[in-house]
Amino acid sequence: MQKQRFPALGDWTEKKTNSFVEEKLVIRNPEELKSKIGKMISEGAQQIQIVTDFDQTISSFLSPATFSLFRMSELSPQDFKNKMQSYYDYYVPIEKDQSIKIEEKNKHMHEWYQKVSEAFHEAKFTKSLSCQILNTSHIYLRYLFEPFFNKCVEEHVPFHIVSGGLDRVINTILASIHEIDTYEEMTLHTNEMIFQDDTLEKMEMLVTATTKAKILETSGIKFRNNTILLGDLPSDFYMTKFLNIPNQVSIGFLAQDHFNQLEEYKKLYDITIIGDPSFLVPLILLSKVMGCQLTEEYTQLFNSQNYDELRELL
Ligand SMILES: [Mg+2]
């Protein structure tokens, strides 16, 4: 039997989507952004690709990370949850500590992931329990992510996801929007849940926040000229670092309560969107590149003064 490209856990029957909340845009360098977008539009549909993070980029800020679902769920064994919580409390401050050198940090991250993998192995989750855990979770898709994703599928836009999350959870979520096994242009680079029959056998831990920059470089993918990059952490910006892609518009989502990090985001991202952002801006950009007409709803949303500066650049 042919291996499924994007194996899932079951169906995400309890799909949830954020509603639209007002968002604020900060554009790092309007002149530069204008020229990037102009180039992107002139090279058109044949040269566009998406590179994106998953947790809290495709899902909203109020959503738990795909990994955390299992640590937080009432359906997970208590012993497993205790272990995961203690690792989380110990390693997250290390992950976030900017004063620790990257090699040192990678060592800690590797150690963390090994412990997590062992804990998952011991807990022996089944697919149906894992699916129930997803269905009882509070993962929300960002508003307008669905039409954005559907447009990418329809137009065969390469869609590369680099995530420190879990493959089957991500696949189950995306499969609730569109058939993904036939989406030839999608690639997913993340950690793998390996099941033996119906029981989780092990986790193949391949991606951490600190190794994200290296993942696509060794993927063997032939990249196009223009990228729309999407992320919610400074480290996401580096997903395309070693790819020598000539043109990129990077969009960073920043939660209102992390507003003090704006300067850091501004140094990296062309557009920082503050709030619990929707996919309106990526969708508008993509539509411009594709030469598609916007729906009345998106046009109306985009006519708000929050987008005045961006509208002038298009
Ligand atoms: Mg993220």
UniProtKB/TrEMBL annotation:
Gene Ontology biological process terms from the UniProt entry: nucleotide metabolic process
Molecular function (Gene Ontology), one example: nucleotide binding
Enzyme Commission number(s): 3.1.3.5
Listed Pfam families: UMPH-1
One GO cellular component term noted in the UniProt record for this chain: cytoplasm
Keywords assigned by UniProt, alphabetized: Hydrolase, Magnesium, Metal-binding, Nucleotide metabolism, Nucleotide-binding
Recorded catalytic activity of this chain's protein: a ribonucleoside 5'-phosphate + H2O = a ribonucleoside + phosphate
PANTHER family according to UniProt: 5'-NUCLEOTIDASE (PTHR13045), 7-METHYLGUANOSINE PHOSPHATE-SPECIFIC 5'-NUCLEOTIDASE (PTHR13045:SF0)
Assigned protein family: Belongs to the pyrimidine 5'-nucleotidase family.
Descriptive protein name: 5'-nucleotidase
Record organism: Paramecium tetraurelia
Taxonomic lineage from the root: Eukaryota, Sar, Alveolata, Ciliophora, Intramacronucleata
